[in-house]
Design brief:
Blueprint lengths: L1 H18 L4 H29 L3 H22 L4 H21 L5 H26 L3
Helix pairs in contact: 2-3, 2-5, 3-4, 4-5
Length: 136
């Protein structure tokens, strides 16, 4: 009887300890989204600098980094749960078309115009992510 009791206590402790690990995935997802958001913000800033310097070739090349950073943000955001996901996912989704259009520009003025629109959307999303997820 003692052996069964000890076994049941050991199982109960194991279950309790494993139950406490459930939130770990969410913490990792939050960190990933915060990092991806910063990467996207930085990638757009790099393109803006190239446009300001009238360097269309370099700016156009840097658009691949914007697309990659956005794709990383989309993938990271899919791991969020609950209210965080409900709050952020629609805003991330609304950027998909804009980011796609950005990579199809054919002139510096077209890039500049598209970038101005997207910049405000990305800044708004960046602020929303930072505030919602309490990013550092």
């Amino acid at each position: 009887m003692r052996k069964i009791t000890k076994s049941l206590v050991a199982v109960a402790i194991s279950v309790a300890l494993l139950g406490g690990c459930g939130g770990g995935g969410t913490e990792a997802a939050v960190k990933d989204v915060c990092n991806a958001s910063t990467d996207l913000h930085n990638a757009v800033d790099t393109v803006k600098t190239d446009v300001t310097s009238l360097n269309f070739g370099k700016a156009k090349d840097e658009l691949a980094n914007v697309k990659k950073a956005f794709d990383n943000l989309v993938d990271s955001a899919k791991k969020l749960k609950g209210e965080e996901a409900k709050t952020l996912q629609p805003k991330i989704d609304s950027l998909k078309t804009s980011i796609g259009n950005l990579t199809n520009v054919s002139s510096l003025s077209e890039l500049s115009t598209s970038l101005s629109t997207i910049s405000s959307q990305i800044q708004s999303l960046y602020s929303e992510i930072t505030n919602t997820l309490k990013c550092p």
